[in-house]
Amino acid sequence: MATNNTPVKSPPPEGIGNSFLIFLDNIRKYLINLLDLREDTDKQGTVEGIKKYIEIKGYNVWILISAAMIASIGLDNNSAAVIIGAMLISPLMSPILGIGLAFGINDRETLWKSVQNFTVAVVVSILTSFVYFKLTPLGIITPELDARTAPTLLDVFVALFGGIAGIVAGSHKDKTNALPGVAIATALMPPLCTVGFGLAKGQYLIWGGALYLFFINAIVIAFTTYVFVRFLKFPLVEYANETEKRKTALFVTFMAIVISIPSVFILQSTLERRNFNLQTENFVIAAFENSDQFEVIKYNRNDIADTLSILEVILSGDTLKRDTIPHLEKIMHKKYPSLRNTRLEVKYSGVTKQEYAVMVNNMSNTGERLEGMNLAVETLNERMNKMEDWQNNVKGNKVDIMPMEVIQYELQEVYPEITELSGGFMIRPEKKDSTVTMVQTPSVNLKWSKIKESTKKEYEKRIDRYLRARFNYDTIIINRMK
Q: Above 50 in pLDDT, residue 92?
């Protein structure tokens, strides 16, 4: 019997290319399984749950009013914790989800009901906050209010991902604890209360910006709900052919894009402003902060035209040389591009660097140093404002009082030996060209503690020179009180 000794050929090993394709396919299957929502979605329960809470009436209205009042109080007092509490109890999200759901399942009745209740919720919230801000004794613009007046593209993304989290959490078979977080993230109630503030104060830029922020949140959340309802293939209530589906999709997408476009330009403006502020800070530090002769008290920018700004720097200490400011301005324009259309102005507080240091140190000894410095700056600002008013009176020949509050503060900070101080204008005769006229002469009355007579005289000479230079007096009378 013949034997076949031909060896059996084993199958060729798989090539590297085939192995890589199999690897990619496994990753694809894993990602699909990881991100799949269909298996855990409760479609019927989701539709019933959203429809159940769409209507704003009865207890929902009272909750809405309470939420609007709490949010208004939080905004008025600049309290983030109170504002968060208002967002947690606010029922504003339900009619917005109802609008997105109605578009997704082609349910005209639910759409109409959602729009009606959405409108009621908006009106009630704005009216409640309007009444509050009309009656509140505070009613000033706080950082929490200001933060809701200029929405940017980043707010669009917050609303987008907040809407995703909301519809995904709401459609899951096992309800999660994500919905309270969504309510906080999307922040629907605070913008409406900011609208009420703007209307109560008659400031259209505030209420306009806040209303825009609210509609960004509302429309993007509704759009996200619509997209996920269609993606998860919720059953349609009314039949819609492909043309109707396409028109609905185009309309919802168009609304979401249109409402988002202005936020792109606002974001660009915000970034430009932040860059300007950063370069301003860097310039001030580089130009002034390392000097032994003076110290920066404050600086701020004033926009005087669309393309021109003034950077005002207020210094304590010595005055700069005449050619120093143009030189610094050239450096500013060359090294800091955002400041090319900015003019530099330097003003002086009228106190030396040492005097300013004494003021700050005295305050820091009795409290927190930071609080002391803030108080010192506020005091100096107040003094400068009073000095500007007084100098304007001088220019208008309306001098009938002296800035005694400023003089008293400055002298007693530097000369604690002064126990009493008063002053005013004395009417005294002055002879000129054989003619006698009555003139007003500034006068300061001082009472000293028990110090040497020579020290008193030296101090009075210094005060005379200081006050004449400080207030541009030709002469001043220093009297000693008994």
A: yes
